[in-house]
Design a protein that fits this description.
Blueprint: H1 7-13, H2 21-39, H3 42-45, H4 52-56, E1 60-65, H5 71-79, E2 97-102, E3 107-110, H6 111-114, H7 129-133, E4 136-141, E5 150-153, H8 161-165, H9 171-181, E6 184-190, H10 198-206, E7 214-219, H11 226-243, E8 252-254, H12 268-283, H13 285-317, H14 324-333, H15 335-346, H16 356-364, H17 376-403, H18 413-416, H19 445-452, E9 461-463, H20 464-471, H21 478-488, E10 495-497, H22 498-512, H23 531-534
Parallel strand pairs: 1-5, 1-6, 2-4, 6-7, 7-8
Antiparallel strand pairs: 2-5, 3-4, 9-10
Helix pairs in contact: 2-13, 2-17, 9-10, 13-17, 19-22, 21-22
């Protein structure tokens, strides 16, 4: 009886049940967050409404940089093939936004056709008008890399007022739209052109709330000597520090991302290590895509909540009859005080508020009388979503990750160094001697044997205590020496014979030379007399 009285309370206590993360995100957005956004005109101020394609699309990588920093060449390097609409040159060549995506046949889809395709996540770009859509295309081609990710190539950023005005659309706003929806933003710099133009500075500031997605690539680093490279790297970090106002340092990858010979090969090992780090970062995107979309929805919900408080506060302050225009000017000028009051009353972090100056500019064109008063039920629904439903989705994300095979970007440049002698670190460190017929440790074994026989071996073996006296001379931490002991004590008898002792010293040498120790002993490092034992 009267069960309907407690329906809302029960719904609030019991989180929604979802089959997949993607379906859960769609349902939460449409039923709980979208009503709040529509009620307080969120889409007119911040970001257009999300569609199903935004939740279903593959991870996207956005490339941003000044002209001739190698953005298009970087994509060509990853795919290991040309793509439709590609133009490369020292002058500003890419004058369009090109979404490079998987397709059964090669071809180009123009912008106006692209924004009416419900399967593509670009429908809301329609708001930027024909000036932009005439400069937006989708290049489709069959490529194994594009089966896991899509890449967005952007026009080179120019310096000077004339070029910015002649674009005909708000370049920074378009990039901000993409930044909200992509999984990774890569800023490319040329080692010879570190000056950050006004437009580039404006673009980086427009990406302000997406620092977690940003990575920096210092490209064409093979064209300068090591000493100059250190200075260039320092200058880049200094320049970025003035624009990106974060206490953390943005990760910078140094390299030469094209398929030509290195002009100055001195730093080849550094470039290889940096390339592998960047590739690992990009390869992890499909695995973390669901988590990224969940994170972006939480960010959007927090902003929508704050926006609702701002709009309802302005509505509350407006007179019902006379003096509306004067009151509107006064409220816009005093928006900072309204921010502070909302922050105090609702315990909201200052970082959740939209940019003050931008909000003031947008409010100038709005009719305050059409704003809605505070509707607690809408806000409570979003609070419930953040407190309960999101937590359940987090569990589902982990379940999906554990049930699926490891999702990684494959093909193209990602395959080139995966196997064989050109893999990063092949034949170095613990991998030294991997292709040799003889045991690699045997080269230095006579020297290790001399030490071994000074440690009082009994029945051809030394005790752990005696081995420790010699091993600690390396000054390596006990945790590292403990790992070396486990790898070297192959028969697990707590003692080392001459071959195991030689192996332990070889692994100490590997570590002292700056290489990582393997988690399991590679087969080529097994002493010849122990190989039958392990088999």
């Amino acid at each position: 009886m009267f069960s309907w009285l407690g329906t809302d309370d029960r719904r609030r206590k019991d989180p929604e049940v979802f089959q997949t993360v993607s379906d859960g995100l769609k349902k939460l957005y449409k039923t709980k967050l979208l009503p709040l956004e529509e009620h307080y005109k969120f889409h007119e101020f911040h970001s257009p409404a999300l569609e199903d394609a935004d939740f279903d699309n593959k991870p996207m990588v956005l490339l941003v940089g000044q002209y001739s920093t190698g953005k298009t060449t970087f994509i060509r390097y990853l795919l290991e093939q040309d793509f439709p609409g590609m133009r490369i040159g020292p002058e500003p060549t890419t004058d369009s936004f090109i979404a490079v995506m998987q397709g059964d046949v090669e071809g180009i889809v123009p912008g106006n056709a692209l924004v009416v395709d419900p399967k593509k996540p670009f429908r809301k770009l329609n708001a930027f008008g024909n000036a932009f859509l005439n400069r937006f295309v989708c290049a489709q081609l069959p490529n194994p890399v594009l089966e896991s990710i899509s890449v967005i190539d952007t026009p080179g950023i120019l310096s000077g007022e004339k070029q910015r005005i002649s674009r005909g659309y708000d370049f920074a706003a378009v990039l901000e739209w993409f930044a909200e929806r992509v999984d990774r933003i890569i800023l490319l710099f040329d080692a010879h052109k570190l000056d950050i133009s006004d437009e580039f500075s404006e673009v980086i500031k427009a990406l302000k709330n997406h620092e977690d997605k940003m990575r920096v690539v210092l490209n064409k680093a093979d064209q300068i000597e090591t000493q100059q490279l250190m200075r260039v790297y320092g200058a880049l970090m200094w320049s970025l520090g003035k624009i990106v106002n974060t206490p953390e340092v943005i990760r910078v990858y140094i390299g030469s991302f094209w398929s030509h010979p290195l002009l100055i090969p001195d730093n080849r090992k550094l470039f290889e290590a940096e390339e592998q780090d960047l590739f690992r970062d990009i390869q992890s995107l499909p695995r973390n895509a669901a988590l990224r979309k969940l994170n972006d929805l939480i960010k959007r919900a927090r902003l929508a909540k704050v926006h609702a408080y701002i709009i309802s506060s302005l509505k509350k302050e407006m007179p019902s009859m006379f003096g509306k225009d004067n009151k509107k000017k006064e409220l816009v000028n005093n928006l900072g005080e309204i921010y502070a009051r909302i922050e105090r009353e609702h315990q909201i972090s200052p970082g959740d508020f939209p940019n003050l100056r931008k909000m003031q500019d947008q409010l100038q064109a709005q009719d305050f009388s059409k704003f809605q008063p505070l509707k607690s039920k809408l806000l409570e629904t979003v609070e419930d979503m953040l407190a309960n439903d999101i937590a359940q989705l987090m569990v589902l994300v982990r379940q999906e990750e554990s049930q699926r095979p490891t999702q990684m970007v494959k093909g193209g440049a990602f395959e080139g160094t995966l196997h064989g002698p050109f893999g990063h670190g092949y034949g170095e460190g613990a991998g030294e001697g991997i292709d040799d017929a003889e045991w690699v440790v045997a080269r230095d074994k006579p020297m290790y044997d001399e030490i071994f026989y000074t440690l009082s071996p009994v029945d051809g073996k030394i005790t752990g205590a005696n081995a420790k006296k010699e091993m600690v001379r390396s000054k390596l931490p006990n945790t590292v020496l403990g790992k070396i002991w486990k790898l070297a004590d192959i028969d697990k008898d707590g003692m080392l014979d001459d071959e195991e002792f030689a192996l332990a010293n070889h692994l100490i040498k590997v570590k002292l030379e700056g290489h990582e120790l393997p988690n399991e002993l590679p087969s080529h490092l097994l002493p010849p007399s122990k190989r039958k034992v392990t088999e």
